[in-house]
Amino acid sequence: MQVFFRGDGTLVIGVMTKNQFLTACASERPLDGKWHHIAVSFAVARRHFGQNQVTVFIDGLQVLSVAIKFPSFSDVS
Description:
Number of strands: 6
Strand content: over 45%
Number of helices: 0
Strand order of the largest sheet: 1-2-3
Largest sheet: 3 strands, antiparallel
Number of domains: 1
Distance between the termini: 12 Å
Helix content: under 10%
Structural class: mainly beta
Radius of gyration: 13 Å
């Protein structure tokens, strides 16, 4: 998983699988040039075909919660 910022201050979460690069943007609250607290949480699906979840908090407020495909831990090197 990668976390980076676009030039307009939008936080972007990127996940690389074997054949895809998936992204999710927290665009409703772009960042300015000041300090912020950023927390990114991911939860692996509990069931075999369930959805993995990524949640982003900026300054304690949830700004993004999205289901996204992760590679399995056995695929990560």
